[in-house]
Amino acid sequence: MQTVVYRVKGPTWGIAIDLTAGSASAAAPPAGAERISNRIWLDTTPVLEHPPSDRSGLRLTPDEVGWLRHGLGLATEAIEAARPPGRHTVVTVHRVLFPAADFQVEGLAGAIVEWSGKEFGIPEVAVGLSFDRAANRFLFDWQPHRGPREQESAECAPPGIYVAVL
Fold first, then answer.
1. What CA–CA distance (Å, rounded) separates 63 from 105?
2. What does DSSP say about strands 88-97 and 40-43: parallel, antiparallel, or unpaired?
3. Over the range 90-115, which residues count as b (16 or more CB within 10 Å of their CB) and which as e?
4. Which residue positions in the chain have pLDDT lower than 50?
5. Distances (CA, A) of 76 to 23, 73, 90, 97
6. Is 61 left (phi over 0), alpha (psi -120 to 50) or beta?
7. Which residue of 4, 22, 84, 147 could cross-link 115, Cys pair, CB 3.0 to 4.6 Å?
8. Are 68 and 76 in contact (CB under 8 A)?
9. d(C-alpha 166, C-alpha 156), whole Å
C-alpha cells in the first residue's frame, strides 16, 4: 500500500489530493469490487463507507468514485501488460484526503493514474492540463497509455476535454 501526493498548481489555486491505495493479485474475480477491465478491479468500499469525522480521510460520493474508475480505466491496458497473465488485479482505495478549497473532482482520476504508475511501474498516462481563467477551472485532456504506433494514429483524433461542474 502506498500514498500518492497529487498536486496541480494553477495561477490562482490548485488541486491537492492524497490518495492511499493498494493492489493484490487474485486467481478469480473478487467479490465486492467493480470491474474496470477483463482483469482489473476497483474496490472503493473503504472510501465509500469511511467515517466522515475522523480527519484521516474523506467519504467519497458515488460521482467522485466515478472519477477514480475513469482514471484507473485509462491505465488498465498498461497494468494488465505489467501483471502476470491469467491473474486478476484488485486495486483497493483505502484513503482519500483533500481540502475543499483546493479540489476539483477530475483530480481524483489524475491521482489514481499517478498512483498506478508508481504501484505497477507503468509508463505515465498522458494527461493534458490547462487552466481556464474565465471559468476558474482546470481542463483535463485524458489519453490512455498507448504504444508508439497507436500514439501516432491517435494524434489525428480530437482530444476529449472533461469538465465537471461542482
1. 9
2. parallel
3. bbbbbbbebeeebbbbbbbbbbbbbb
4. 146-166
5. 13, 5, 11, 24
6. beta
7. 4
8. no
9. 31
